[in-house]
């Protein structure tokens, strides 16, 4: 090794030690309220800097977590993506973390914050967060989504029609459905918006979201940032048009723009982009899994079919109001359990991130300030302590309510999903029409795609979906 290299090493070593001393003496002057002599949670931190990132990504992440939980219990430390962290698979502990906003704040990589918008709801705390949350929640209350029920139904029917007889990639088509519903709840039937351009920008944004955050011409990240700018301009134009016409609008943009909301245009834009992001892929992913599970479980499909056909039969007999209405969706227990079981087994948000705002004492351990804390939803949903035979798809398990805090597909506490009602509603409406009017042939499932063909039901013979699986 050359002398200069050795010197470099030495210098950096010494500066790290000095920095450490400096930090320690600072904490001497500002002592923590918590006993910092407490032990850290059990676990290993892996290599310096890279920690256990490689282990987590090189093996199946499920296996990584399962092995850790077996060895260290439901709360263990690790080091991933450059951060020390504590992972939590104990239901009560997860709830504690999600509900103690004064101890744990949301945390996202800077690149993701820039892409969605720094002022978007997910990243916020305190009064600003509470204000945003109130505004979002009042657009997605049961009362509010009742009003757009028939529009959601038309969107569902139009989507299904457009798939008839074609071989479709289920996830892509479901994303079209869910973005159309999201745009309806955000912009109402605002004609001024160019939905097609907006969807195209969204597609680019989404492809860049999980790419390496390198902002150089040609990279996916760069393209995504450009698409973000274009989206922001579109929202800004819609805002200024609405200001001119001074019309009242009963949608999310209307509620963000109200005088009382007190938001700047930039804050509005960041949150519109954020809500579309939160609403689209999540719901489309769940719908795609549901189609797969219905294909694989003929008896479940049969029970669902019976439920929906009996709703239709009742309507025919009463001879009055035809067509589905909002209260019908409250009366679909079988399909609701299919949705719940899919949310559990697919656990599409495997975990979320928080960061300790200060040193926290928890169950006899120290969670140091600045450490990331990850409630592991997927592991909670897949633990045999919480769900018998967790790997089995069995909607009937939800005939009995799950134990408290063991089922958190929409999170819990301060940042719990404000869209859960509309997500469930749009899934029920689409499934009702899919199940009663079509039989589906599932052609194949690859790792990423579920390809499906829909046929209109024309004979009394009902075919069970064919399923071929190519992993
Ligand atoms: C089945 C579909 C969905 C699932 C599984 C889901 C799941 C979640 C979860 C787990 C969180 C909490 C994240 C955390 O605590 O860090 C969350 C937050 C959020 N979701 Fe959903 N979501 C879905 C659909 C939707 C829809 C349709 C909307 C549209 C309104 C939406 C809007 C949001 C927003 C705005 C937040 C952030 C709330 C906050 O930070 O206060 N989600 N979602
Ligand atoms: C909805 O439809 C059901 C029949 O399925 C009917 O009994 C009920 O009165 C309808 N509700 C409304 C609000 O129209
Ligand atoms: C949080 O969990 C508790 C207990 O399981 C539940 O009663 C409550 O409704 C949950 N809150 C949200 C917002 O999901």
Automatic annotation (TrEMBL):
<dbReference type="GO" id="GO:0020037">
    <property type="term" value="F:heme binding"/>
</dbReference>
<dbReference type="InterPro" id="IPR001128">
    <property type="entry name" value="Cyt_P450"/>
</dbReference>
<keyword id="KW-1133">Transmembrane helix</keyword>
<dbReference type="GO" id="GO:0010295">
    <property type="term" value="F:(+)-abscisic acid 8'-hydroxylase activity"/>
</dbReference>
<keyword id="KW-0560">Oxidoreductase</keyword>
<keyword id="KW-0479">Metal-binding</keyword>
<comment type="similarity">
    <text>Belongs to the cytochrome P450 family.</text>
</comment>
<keyword id="KW-0408">Iron</keyword>
<dbReference type="InterPro" id="IPR002401">
    <property type="entry name" value="Cyt_P450_E_grp-I"/>
</dbReference>
<keyword id="KW-0472">Membrane</keyword>
<keyword id="KW-0812">Transmembrane</keyword>
<dbReference type="GO" id="GO:0016020">
    <property type="term" value="C:membrane"/>
</dbReference>
<dbReference type="GO" id="GO:0009687">
    <property type="term" value="P:abscisic acid metabolic process"/>
</dbReference>
<dbReference type="Pfam" id="PF00067">
    <property type="entry name" value="p450"/>
</dbReference>
<dbReference type="GO" id="GO:0016125">
    <property type="term" value="P:sterol metabolic process"/>
</dbReference>
<keyword id="KW-0503">Monooxygenase</keyword>
<feature type="transmembrane region" description="Helical">
    <location>
        <begin position="7"/>
        <end position="30"/>
    </location>
</feature>
<dbReference type="GO" id="GO:0005506">
    <property type="term" value="F:iron ion binding"/>
</dbReference>
<keyword id="KW-0349">Heme</keyword>
<feature type="binding site" description="axial binding residue">
    <location>
        <position position="417"/>
    </location>
    <ligand>
        <name>heme</name>
    </ligand>
</feature>
<dbReference type="InterPro" id="IPR017972">
    <property type="entry name" value="Cyt_P450_CS"/>
</dbReference>
<dbReference type="InterPro" id="IPR036396">
    <property type="entry name" value="Cyt_P450_sf"/>
</dbReference>
<protein>
    <recommendedName>
        <fullName>(+)-abscisic acid 8'-hydroxylase</fullName>
        <ecNumber>1.14.14.137</ecNumber>
    </recommendedName>
</protein>
<comment type="pathway">
    <text>Plant hormone degradation; abscisic acid degradation.</text>
</comment>
